[in-house]
Amino acid sequence: MTHFDHQGLRADIVAGASAPVHNATVPALVARALGQGGAQLTAHGALSVETGAFTGRSPKDKFIVRDGLTENAVWWDNAGGMAPDRFDLLLADVKEHLGHQELFVEDLLAGASARHQYAVTVLTPSAWHALFIRNLLIRPEDGLPIAADARDVTIVHAPLFQADPDRHGTRTETVIALDMSRNIVVIAGTLYAGEIKKAVFSLFNFHAPRAGVLPMHCSANLGPEGEAALFFGLSGTGKTTLSNDSARPLIGDDEHGWDDAGVFNLEGGCYAKTVRLSAEAEPEIYAATQRFGTVLENVVLDKQGVPIFDDISRTENTRAAYPLAALPKVAPGTVGGTPKTVVFLTADAFGVLPPLARLTPEQAVYHFLSGYTAKVAGTERGITEPQATFSACFGAPFMPLHPTVYGAMLAERLRRSGAQAWLLNTGWTGGGYGVGRRIDIASTRRLLTAALDGGLDDVAMRTDPLFGFEVPEAVPGVDPALLDPRQTWSDAEAYERAAARLVGLFRKNFEKFGAGADAGAGPHLAEAAE
After folding, report:
1. Annotated binding site for Mn(2+)
2. Which residues are annotated as a binding site?
3. Which residues are catalytic?
4. Close Cβ partners of 125 (under 8 Å, ≥ 6 residues apart)
5. Of 3.30.2280.10, 2.40.50.100, 3.40.449.10, 3.30.43.10, which CATH number belongs to 6-257+264-333?
6. What is the pLDDT of residues 427-439, one digit of tens each?
């Protein structure tokens, strides 16, 4: 890879700023964010902000520079391409836009492993965005030394700049453009701060496999012997909730790498969803939302400045960004040993999947590549219809390479580590959404604990006739009927129809990986796909 002068680029951008501020303290960033407008303190001292028209990521406005490095490597079905000259023009125009503005420069790290580290500099005219990314990446004061061979990354953030589709080759006035060869990112036309952190993850996902590292969109915590447990799952499946366990220190809640030495966090903070957050259900996260320096995105406040987490009038994607130090129990160095347990979480709104199933390595790869959950589409006159969602590797928007690249790496990691994989369903039982009920959190935690501590190693298992995985017949403290979805439905024919539909959805989704790609690890009900 050609060496690029990141210091020169950063100096050039900073030279045009009217008042560059380098690595400001949290109080200084909070004060400046309040001064810039569009932010306010909550009653507890957190910084509350709104992100305007964009309350989530804009995946269709994400582009990767198409060059010699990326041309034959990127999964172009999942990413937009941008010509190098268009990127250079975009970068030049954004630099000119930032000239004579107040500019905040944050020098941070990504990657808690010194072997796989990124020296990330973010340049932004927005104080609250600077605070956001300072909360989420690894800060100099965290004590992690910069590795001599750390990979330089520069993120140029211009939320008020409007791209020109004709001039810059973009789809709209919003753009997230990544140059993988030079590790430069340009983000413009959106106030949604999650684009910054996900850009770092996208860069890591591209480069990590070349270094023998499996990049993972998952949470992780630490077992009693220093081993890691991994939790994959899409939004709403309980990934953050279940990985936050008072008995198991948290390694991280979103982005990790798995190499020969074990698991390491890519970040230094958490970006937790706060919709319907409560002190009773998630006390650690709730407490973090009350600390000075935490950034709350799109959370509605009452007249006294108290967050109303049940109010989703702005968006369901309300978020809190805070450093890991805000949590009571964090793994030292945010690293862990080789995993012994890998958990794939799903919230099956069809009411078909069992609450827990043991997977073979082949089945684990199948469910990893499927990345399934089901979201509730809504209710009209009491009629509800779940919607199946499949996101390869449980994070397709951030995976620049083809999913099978990551799937092959997971298969090898499972083989070499001997880690046991499980499918944990936190969705519905006794019927689909609107008929059945959500599996209670107490039962889910008992099932998870049994899987993590080896309590299911010797229990009797039945083979699921649809998916072929093994399901425990009994787990202490859990109603045996809950373990077999068929027994929880009052209408057997309705169950069979729902099961056939779900199997068909799985098979149809997996067709994009090629004929026979499931290697027999997928669902068996072939006629359901017809």
Report:
1. 198, 217, 254
2. 57, 192, 198, 217, 233-241, 254, 282, 319, 438-439, 444
3. 57, 198, 217, 235, 239-240, 254, 319
4. 98, 101, 102, 103, 104, 157, 158, 159, 160
5. 3.40.449.10
6. 999 999 989 999 9
